[in-house]
Amino acid sequence: MPLTKQELLEFEREILGLFEQAKITTPVHLSGGNEEELIEIFNQIKPDDWVFSTHRSHYHALLKGIQKEKLKEMILCGKSMHIFNKELNFFSSSIVAGCAAIAAGVALALKKKNSSQKVWCFIGDGAEDEGHFYESVRYVEGWDLPCTFIIEDNDRSVATPKSDRYNKSEIQWPDCVKRHYYTPTYPHYSGGKFVDFSKCEIKPIQQYPKQSSSLISSCDELGLTYQQAIKQSMEDLAKDKKTIFLGYNVKYGNKGYGTLTEIPGEQVLETPLAENLMTGLAMGLALEGFKPVLFFERHDFMLNALDNIVNHLDKIEKMSYGEFKTPVIIRATIGSKYPLYPGPQHVQDFTEAFQKLLCMPIYKPSNSQEIINTYNHLSDFNYPAIIVEEKDKYSNI
Ligand SMILES: Cc1ncc(C[n+]2csc(CCOP(=O)(O)OP(=O)(O)O)c2C)c(N)n1
Ligand SMILES: [Mg+2]
Fold first, then answer.
1. What does the mean pLDDT of the chain come to?
2. How far is Cα of residue 29 from the mean position of the Cα atoms in its chain?
3. Domains located in the chain, CATH noted
4. Residue 207 has pLDDT above 60, yes or no
């Protein structure tokens, strides 16, 4: 039986009570004022459709089918902003607009599989301010993907109205974006009643262990060049038809620095020049069973994808307690200095910075044998990993 407006209201009142008694030691973003619109929208959402939610997830979760008691338990454990449920295809992120590209990726996967499932991605009007949202909408619209973005517009980002953000500017989004307006019942949690947390039980903060990346033992060179070894590894990975090589300049131009020339066309996906989007697309494809190999031609440009790499790819498995896995291989090439020196924005090496930032393993094979060993190891991978390449070791470009 679908939940009624009354049940939704009561649930949030109960959570508010628990928060005010300092029983929940995590920020809680209560829903309110949008019950009728959401009930109507969720009437169209099928049980096996995907729902991507936000920091304000309670109503979405309840209406997708998460049981009230189970949700309450999750909220009491501090998961209000991070509700995941694989059985119900329910995914969330507390990064504003953080789900948009991943939702687009799942929709891309569903279209590739000729599935009748759909993707529904909820965002607030604050998320509409983010460039990452624009990339995803443009992709979904352009490729006619089965994904609808729903802007729940309460005219505030925390407390700031739209008029004070982009002045008069209003974007006319394409048809894949729907909007409903509502007046929120509750203020942003930090603007509510003062709660005294001094006597409450502080729960330990979950640590994310770093994975080991030390499996490559140094060994002699094979009779292959560095570049030939990468090319060979890509062709070996491509034997599994679920492998998809994506990025920009993978189908056109130099085709992944000459390493993807023999890969069958249907396994190569050229993306827009939108690094965060392409990382989200890779994650979405992985969530639907594909094995994405994501190509970045320079570390410098990966910085544009750090939201998805750091906040999502590196954390989703742990945040969802293993429910969602996103085994994406990232080829992270360091730009070459020779014979043409392109300047300081094209040759940076962030390997050490990535090692500090990320829990996923990062490999930097230094010769052809190490490359082959690394990719052999990763051929059955079920976790994300970064393989650093050095363009200066390529011989022919
Ligand atoms: C990328 C990012 N920037 C800032 C924040 C902090 N933050 C959390 S909620 C929020 C407001 C979001 O507004 P909106 O998307 O309209 O959602 P609403 O809270 O109104 O439902 C902000 C700025 C964040 N979580 N993520
Ligand atoms: Mg808002």
1. 94
2. 21
3. 5-191 (3.40.50.970), 226-393 (3.40.50.970)
4. yes
